[in-house]
Predict the structure.
Amino acid sequence: MPRVRLFHPAEGVQTAEIGQDAQVIGRPGVQSQIQVSDSGLSRRHGHVWADAAGVWYEDLGSSNGSWKGEERLQSKLRLEPGVELRLGPNLRLSLFEEEQGLPPGMEVCMEAEAGAEGLSSQYISALYEMVDRLLGASGVGYIPEVIARLKREIPAAGRIALVGWPCPANGGWEELVPSSHGASFVSRSLARYAVERGKGLLLADWSRPTDLEMPFSAVMQGIRNAFYIPLLFEGTAFGVFCVDSPDAELALTPQHFQFVCAVAGLLATTLSAERLREEARAKEAARAGLAAFLQIASHDLKNPLHSIANGARLLTVAKPEQQPRLVSAILTASNRATDLIKTYLDVASVESGKALTVDWAVVDCRSVIEEEVEFLRGVLSFGHPLQVFACAEVRVDERKFRQIVTNLASNAIKYSPSGGMVTIAAGVSDGLLRVEVTDRGTGISAADQARLFQAFQRVGDVSLAPGTGLGLWITAALVAAQGGQIGVTSEPGQGSTFWFTIPQGEG
Ligand code: ADP
């Protein structure tokens, strides 16, 4: 989704995602969705929306107007990259663009990798104390103390933040260790620059006249003299240590820089160690999760067992001619229970690192899918029209294939309102079987889609339907065992299409 960027000298920078529905920009109140406290703005100053042609802005009859340069806007206008509009006297609106490189006027005065060479004895003893503190502590609890010590050593280090990298798409910084003043002063473009160079940077704009107006976040945020030092774990940046001197009288010097680089190296080591500890804890939790999973497996078995019990009950009162059908239904359900148990054993072996065995067979895709749909109709009473479009012969592991189709179709039913159409479509093209299960249900946000296929992940409004958060995880393992891929495309409120592929080559 495109984004716009708003800059206000007092409120700072904010960004907003723009969809087809117009969003009103104005002073805080019920009438505006994008709000900026500025008495020069009207309550409904202007609105922005997007369509296939781009992002549009239109003034809503505000008293101070909206301006492009000297020209007051009279009609809607498409936002162009690099062009700023002025809303009222102060607010600037532009398309959000990833910023690259250094802002104009900013110079890199020095680059360094973390290390303690050439430090004065005062800084070396401060560093020793910090190492002692951090080594003696478990976890990252002592990092704020180390940062406070750094501030005492360098009074010019007025603002300090330790932020995670990459910066999340919504623009807000994740602070690795929350600082008292927050991380709002951190410049995304400087952080990116330091990460790209892989080195600590001493930046200064001493030479630049202070009244020059520049449309880049660093300058807007009043940065004039700063250190941006990437924190590395196994060669990859996971954070940036930012130190900034907002006070024109107090300069950050190269000597300070060497010391701060050494401190940053220390912090990177401490945070990386904590990360490794957390990974170990997560593995432990996954093992515990597996135990919980086995409990849940018994819960899933409920459906076929329920069918068996029902069938047996009916059998006691059935007429002789009805009995063969009931017996066959009971047998089908008991086979299904056995299949489920096999699936769980499969998943348990995936967890323990063993590869799943695959029993390839040529099956009639359409009838297999229809049988699964029939079975679901028997166990889930649902009011969804269900369409199947499928090709004939495919080469799959039948048990796994049935399980995948059932899991995706039952989710499509569970997460869409009664009456919502569910479609299952399967076809082979270029040697690849592709199956798509589409619903018109709740849909899933882009952020949630990223974690759906992990174990124990339930997203959105979990009260809509009972579940364990394991179905998609199992499904993904079954697809991967057959050499295929799985994915989803979805829009919140519009529905979802879960798809998977299975290569049809020899194997
Ligand atoms: P469960 O349904 O038992 O919670 P799954 O692993 O099958 O577990 O699904 C994980 C989560 O993904 C669900 O909790 C639900 O939030 C979401 N989800 C799965 N399928 C759909 C769908 N078709 N539409 C909307 N959300 C879905």
Remarks:
- The two ends are 41 Å apart (CA to CA).
- The chain has a mean pLDDT of 83.
